[in-house]
Design a protein that fits this description.
The chain has 288 residues and is an alpha/beta fold. It folds into three domains: 84 residues, Winged helix-like DNA-binding domain superfamily/Winged helix DNA-binding domain (Arc Repressor Mutant, subunit A), CATH 1.10.10.10; 96 residues, Periplasmic binding protein-like II (D-Maltodextrin-Binding Protein, domain 2, 3-Layer(aba) Sandwich), CATH 3.40.190.10; 96 residues, D-Maltodextrin-Binding Protein, domain 2. The protein has ten helices and eleven strands. The protein is elongated and about 90 Å long. The chain starts with a helix and ends with a helix.
């Protein structure tokens, strides 16, 4: 069995006749007939019924063709992968994402991009606050998606969308005022950067704080009445509707906070062809 024989079989089925297949493959009809005959003789099977005017697969031929399609797809993926290697195309992309970034915003773009590049894998790094910019700056990721808390001349930032941070508290607290919020700890997340500025965005003056390095843990602490804090609206919208969390609306100093998200790219890192394409895909999607 050869690759050309399987391609011949596929062309005959898809084009509907030996004549159309010969034109499609730029081969003579006798050459196609010979390829199919050799394939049948090699495995002592009959692929096509000779009783029909047009080629029709036998039951055996139908079963064989289904497996042949799988083999052809695997070979073509391997062929494409080999060509990409020869052209220095990356086989893996490393993307840094801020923990507050809504995956739903970028999922359609990622799906469209990777559907046409089955040989490319994705490694996602989740970071908090300055940690993302640090990884971008140190070339530990191809590029990042998140807030730009580090103003560096070495990082190019391209705005894509905003994430709304909403102040929430457990609904067990019926009367929410400034006094209560100062009494309870404000739950904040720590930066994943070792060089964090320790600056807290949106901190209520005079309040005490608890810190965690995990956004989900922050949500659990708040939901269980151990404090209050801001969380991404897309993350807690359903819990607010279900009454498992309550938005803080009665304190003037504590409001919703829009946080701009950026595509963060190091000016000193050379991106490969796939990384460049993905960056362009995401930027274009944000503008549409």
């Amino acid at each position: 069995m050869t690759y050309d024989q399987l391609v011949t079989l596929e062309a005959i089925i898809e084009q509907g006749s030996f004549k159309a297949a010969s034109e499609f493959l730029h081969k003579t009809q006798p050459a196609l007939s010979s390829a199919i005959k050799k394939l049948e003789q090699e495995y002592d099977i009959t692929l096509f019924s000779r009783e029909e005017y047009r080629p029709k697969l036998t039951d055996t031929g139908q079963a064989f063709y289904l497996k042949a399609q799988e083999a052809l797809q695997s070979f073509r993926e391997l062929e494409k992968f080999s060509k990409e290697l020869s052209l220095d195309h990356e086989t893996e992309l490393t993307l840094g994402i801020d923990a507050i970034c809504p995956i739903a915003e970028i999922a359609p773009t990622l799906n469209t991009f990777f559907e046409t590049r089955p040989s490319v894998s994705l490694n996602l790094n989740i970071d908090l606050l300055e940690g993302l910019a640090q990884k971008v700056n140190e070339h530990k990721v191809d590029f990042g998606i998140g807030s730009n808390l580090v103003q560096s001349e070495h990082i190019e930032s391209l705005p894509i969308f905003d994430v709304v941070m909403v102040p929430v508290i457990s609904p067990k607290f019926k009367k929410v005022n400034q006094s209560l919020l100062k009494k309870l700890p404000q739950i904040i997340v720590q930066s994943s950067s070792k060089q964090s500025s320790k600056k807290v965005v949106g901190k209520l003056q005079g309040s005490k704080s608890w810190s965690t390095s995990d956004m989900f843990m922050k949500e659990q602490l708040i939901e269980n009445g151990l404090g209050w804090g801001r969380l991404p609206l897309h993350q807690v919208r359903d819990k607010i509707k279900l009454g498992r969390l309550a938005e803080v609306k009665s304190v003037d100093q504590v409001k919703r906070l829009p946080v701009p998200m950026y595509l963060l790219k190091s000016r000193t890192k050379t991106l490969g062809p796939h990384a460049k394409s993905l960056l362009s895909f995401l930027l274009e999607a944000s503008r549409s």
